[in-house]
Amino acid sequence: MQINDHLREREAADDPILVGLVGCGQMGSGLMHVMHAMRGMECVAVADVDVKRPLEALRAMGIPRQKIRITENVGVAVDALEDGQYVVTPNALLLTQLEPLDAIVEATGSPEVGAQVAWNAILADKHIIMLNVETDVTVGPLLRETALRADVIYTAAFGDEPGVCKMLYNQADALGFEIVCVGKGKNNPIDFDATPDSCREEALRRGMNPKMLAAFKDGTKTMVEMATVSNATGLIPDVPGMHGPQVDVPDLCKVLIPKEDGGILSGRGRVDYSTGKVAPGVFVIVAADDPRIATDMGFVGMGPGPYFTLYRPYHLCNIETPLAVAEAVLYREETVSSRAMVSEVVAVAKRDLHPGEILGEIGEADYLGRIYTYREAVELGGLPLGLAAKGKVVQDVRKGELLTYANVMPDTTRFVYRLRQVQDSMIGFARTIRRP
Fold first, then answer.
1. 86 neighbors 63 (Cβ within 8 angstroms)
2. For a tag site, which of 33, 262, 269, 414 has the least CB within 10 Å?
3. For the residues 310-331, what does the mean pLDDT come to?
């Protein structure tokens, strides 16, 4: 598909794709700059609890203050957009009510905010692109099914690891290769004790939110990203938390393969990650069991086989996200999303927890995420990561133990919890979960 040609056509017709953005942090503000530099697409409405952040991003893009309208009123916002102005608001759900917008990008990383924005965007017949896989691994299958019925696109973003992994997976699968393992590079070993306080200095130096950096360091983000890949493809984690070997690119196809062939996996069809020299790349390991295909793969420099590594040495995060927006709006195609609950990311205590404590958000000091197969998570009664925030501890939980529906009472007033209840009711054996 010629996205660049079609975007040029939109630009020439003075009919750009109009995008709303929820969350103007590091990823969101950078995304605004990228879309502003593109042809045929513009981010014209931004929601953030701190309106100073989108105002600063617009200023840095050269947008004069008189062209920006701060409002929480739908009518005022629509009039502003139709008048060629930019809209800034602290109310995320306002964007779902703005008729001129073609699509909304959700970039908060909060399962609660993401669930509310995605659900309301879908009901308002707007495409929704998630730079928020924390929401996708919690209620993605329900959101995707609802979007299909509404004839709009719900998708995670290209540029984030799941989107780029799915691109490589699609290519390999279309060519008839058997998929052995799909994975990503992680640029450091997991630090299970990472907290916003321990990460603060580095985060501020890198212009990041300390909570977000802690979620990367403690492994939660890796678990979430590969769970979306799992739920989109049907591939499973080989063991809880995956293996995460320290393997460089040339040896991926020697290690992340079945044990009977000298690797560490119990079978083909897995998701995993490496802490070797792979990041910021992603990979797909394939098997070519046909001798002629294996010979041809060797001829083009892919090695002797029968296992081969397809490797993309980069993912550009928010910089590539507009490609997912364009595919959704122009072609009504998704990049990647959870189609079924194949894997679950379960919350694990990061410290000793005691009855009466109220849990914080993802990336804080209370818990981290660990990937399991969905069936294992259900059998263990594991509490989904996306439902942990604001939950109340009802039994002592030791550091390293799973949070479960028996030792934590989720906050049942949260919208993401209610959506998850609906989703669970649609999946047979999920109904056997015993709740307090």
1. yes
2. 262
3. 97
Statement: residue 433 has pLDDT above 80: no
**Do residues 125 and 255 share a domain?**
no
Query: 193 with 116, same domain?
Result: no
In a domain, 73, yes or no: yes
Q: Are residues 153 and 72 in the same domain?
A: yes
Total structural domains within the chain: 3
The rounded Cα 279 to chain-centroid distance in angstroms is 17
pLDDT band at 188 (very low <50, low <70, confident <90, very high): confident
Tokens of 44: 């014209």
Q: Are residues 269 and 326 in the same domain?
A: no
Calculate what percentage of the chain has a pLDDT beyond 90. Answer: 95
Residue 202 to residue 411: CA distance in whole angstroms: 32
Sign for the pseudo-dihedral over CA of 390, 395, 400, 404: negative
Are 251 and 394 contained in the same domain? no
Nearest in space to 104 (alpha carbons), one of 132, 69, 79, 83: 132
Per-residue pLDDT at 432 exceeds 90: no
Computed over every residue of the chain, the mean pLDDT equals 96
Q: Is residue 172 within 8 Å of 286, Cβ to Cβ?
A: yes
Q: Residue holding tokens 């934590």? A: 408
Residues 244 and 359 in one domain: no
One domain, residues 7 and 154: yes
Strand order in the sheet with 127-130: 68-70, 86-89, 41-47, 17-22, 103-106, 127-130, 154-156
Task: Please tell me whether residues 31 and 154 are part of one structural domain.
Answer: yes
* Mean pLDDT score, 151-171: 97
Give me the CATH number covering residue 101.
3.40.50.720
Mean pLDDT across 10-29: 97
Can you read off the two tokens belonging to residue 26?
């590091």
Whether residue 216 is predicted with pLDDT greater than 80 in this model: the reply is yes
How many degrees, rounded to 5, is the angle at CA 400 between CA 396 and CA 405? 50
Read off the pTM.
0.95
Q: Considering the domain boundaries, does residue 356 fall inside one?
A: yes
